[in-house]
Amino acid sequence: MSRLKATKFIENLLLITLFSFVTTPVFSAEKEKSSLEEGRAIAINLCQACHSFTGASQAGTVGPPFVSMKIRFPDRRRMRDIIYDPQNEKPNTMMPPFGRHGFVNEKEMDLLIDYLYTL
Hints:
Layout: H1 2-23, H2 35-46, H3 69-72, H4 76-84, H5 106-116
Helix pairs in contact: 2-5
C-alpha cells in the first residue's frame, strides 16, 4: 500500500512539474513597453481624435496641437489638472474630464504627461 501511495505521489509530482513548464513561458516574446511607449499609447487612445501630434495616425482638429508641451506647460500640476478635469479651467471646453470620469488613473496620467513632455 505504501508503494502505491509513493507511485501516486511521484505521478502527481511529475504532472505538476510538467504543467508548470507548459504554463510558464521560458522567455517573453514581447518586450515590455517602455514608459514613454505606454504614454504614447494612452495619447493615441485618448487624444488623437481631437489633437494632432507627432506619432498619431490621424490628426485631430478640435483641440490645439501637441507641440512644445513642456514650454507651454512648465507646471506639471497644471497639465495634470487640465487632463483630470479641463472644465475647471475652461467651463465650456469640449475636452472630456479624463481623470474625473475615470478614463485614466494616476499612473496612466503620469505616463501620458511624461510622453506629452517629449512633444
